[in-house]
Amino acid sequence: MSNQPRTPQPSGSGDNAPAERRLALRIMTRPLDTNHYGTIFGGVILSAIDQAGFVEARRSGSHRWVTASIERVDFHAPVFVGDVVNLYTATIKQGTKSVTIRVDVESERSPSQSPVPVTSATLTMVAVDSRGTPIPFRSPATV
Ligand SMILES: CC(C)(COP(=O)(O)OP(=O)(O)OC[C@H]1O[C@@H](n2cnc3c(N)ncnc32)[C@H](O)[C@@H]1OP(=O)(O)O)[C@@H](O)C(=O)NCCC(=O)NCCS
Question: How many angstroms separate the alpha carbon of residue 122 from the centre of ligand 1?
Fold first, then answer.
């Protein structure tokens, strides 16, 4: 199977949003982010994926959003110190209180700085009220 991230597709039937991929986050990697092999620690990328998921979820409604699950993460290639990491997101499914989001992570590295697909993930974010109770994300803004 190719390491190339697949273009997200709306899944299932019902009120699914078009899976338009957008840049959610752009980060620079530093020596502080490395593991003992000198490559970037996977947890750093997971944290960025979680943040990108929030940025994408917020496009569906101005609410508190929490991560309910990270269904899948594939680390295709390592990330190196000095890489600039781009996180692209697409909402692949909209439910009532939750959205499912695809995150594609690409590293720009010297000398070419052409993007290298490094990680892809799928996660579900849930809109909640101030008490943490799930709410329909199509309701008026709560934050
Ligand atoms: C996520 C959370 C709000 C779900 O609460 P819940 O009462 O179980 O949710 P409900 O059963 O009412 O379901 C609400 C929606 O969330 C979805 N959902 C709930 N748990 C889910 C899970 N584990 N994975 C995917 N979707 C989930 C449901 O499918 C439903 O979606 P829909 O309305 O679009 O059909 C609750 O489990 C929670 O607060 N978890 C902690 C979240 C958090 O702190 N994340 C950061 C971790 S540090």
Answer: 15
